[in-house]
């Protein structure tokens, strides 16, 4: 089998890319994208395009780079190795396909990180935020064998929760485009449960003592994170678990944790049960946190109507 050209990373090439990064014209960026899509011999264009995915980059260049990179990675997703497999690629000698797979994994992770930053950053233009979020959610949809790519989605929600600046525009996009899908709601609750539990471990016991005795800055950060978790939970549309019988899914497999669609479980009763359980766990984990006074008042005013009726076992409150 003929070996495919692999990306080189000489210091001079990297320096050239960095020096040109701020002066590339739009037609040059388009050419980089076209060549990247045409042949593996142009794989070194990927880092140059990735460097343009910044909230401070010129909007037209960032949009063009994003579109090219998305077009490049989408058909390759099935062949991108796991992080562990990519890390072990060096043990396989100089097999070009394994080396290419490891390179692909690294570049894809960089793309995901850039899309998360563009989606969450307050410095992003609304246009690039919209396109970046759509690209990110497309990758979430394209998990292995049609599964929801929960790891990518968790990274995204983690960044939203830990954003120091308001995320109102992003929340509006999530509500208008994505929170209508049942599997996105399900994995939103799943991730927020994990994030709230992690944050809770830092605000209870010895972690709580450290927080209370820490700086005002650390206390303010914790308060911001709790506000963000609440805003996410409050923006997920409520479902009538008694009447809901049809469910729109973002991914092919939906709520299944396996790589195939289990039609025997694809019933309204099964989905309602799973979703209600995740809803309950997410809210319970959140309510265990030391809520700021304004959040506490909002929760107290709405919990009897918006939370308790949808919990799997309200008596545990």
From TrEMBL:
<dbReference type="GO" id="GO:0042254">
    <property type="term" value="P:ribosome biogenesis"/>
</dbReference>
<feature type="compositionally biased region" description="Low complexity">
    <location>
        <begin position="1"/>
        <end position="13"/>
    </location>
</feature>
<protein>
    <submittedName>
        <fullName>Nucleolar complex protein 4</fullName>
    </submittedName>
</protein>
<feature type="region of interest" description="Disordered">
    <location>
        <begin position="1"/>
        <end position="21"/>
    </location>
</feature>
<dbReference type="InterPro" id="IPR027193">
    <property type="entry name" value="Noc4"/>
</dbReference>
């Amino acid at each position: 089998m003929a070996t495919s050209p692999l990306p080189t990373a000489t210091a001079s090439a990297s320096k050239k890319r960095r020096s040109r990064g701020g002066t590339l014209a739009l037609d040059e960026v388009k050419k980089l994208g076209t060549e990247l899509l045409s042949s593996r011999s142009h794989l070194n264009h990927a880092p140059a395009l990735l460097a343009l995915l910044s909230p401070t980059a010129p909007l037209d260049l960032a949009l063009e780079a994003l579109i090219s990179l998305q077009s490049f990675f989408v058909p390759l997703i099935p062949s991108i190795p796991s992080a562990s497999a990519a890390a072990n690629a060096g043990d396989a000698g100089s097999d070009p396909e394994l080396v290419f797979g490891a390179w692909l994994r690294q570049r894809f992770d960089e793309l995901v990180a850039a899309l998360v930053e563009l989606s969450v950053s307050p410095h992003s233009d609304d246009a690039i935020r919209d396109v970046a979020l759509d690209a990110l959610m497309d990758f979430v949809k394209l998990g292995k064998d049609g599964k929801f790519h929960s790891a990518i989605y968790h990274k995204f929600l983690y960044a939203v929760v830990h954003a120091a600046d308001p995320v109102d525009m992003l929340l509006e996009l999530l509500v208008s485009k994505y929170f209508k899908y049942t599997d996105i709601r399900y994995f939103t609750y799943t991730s927020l449960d994990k994030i709230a539990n992690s944050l809770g471990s830092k605000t209870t016991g010895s972690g709580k003592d450290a927080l209370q005795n820490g700086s005002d800055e650390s206390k303010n950060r914790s308060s911001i994170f709790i506000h963000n978790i609440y805003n996410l939970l409050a923006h997920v549309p409520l479902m009538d678990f008694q009447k809901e019988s049809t469910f729109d899914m973002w991914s092919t497999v939906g709520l299944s944790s396996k790589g195939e669609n289990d039609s025997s479980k694809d019933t309204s009763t099964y989905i309602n049960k799973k979703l209600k359980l995740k809803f309950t766990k997410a809210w319970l984990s959140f309510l265990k946190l030391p809520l700021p006074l304004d959040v506490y008042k909002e929760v107290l005013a709405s919990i009897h109507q918006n939370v308790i009726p949808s919990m799997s076992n309200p008596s545990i409150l």
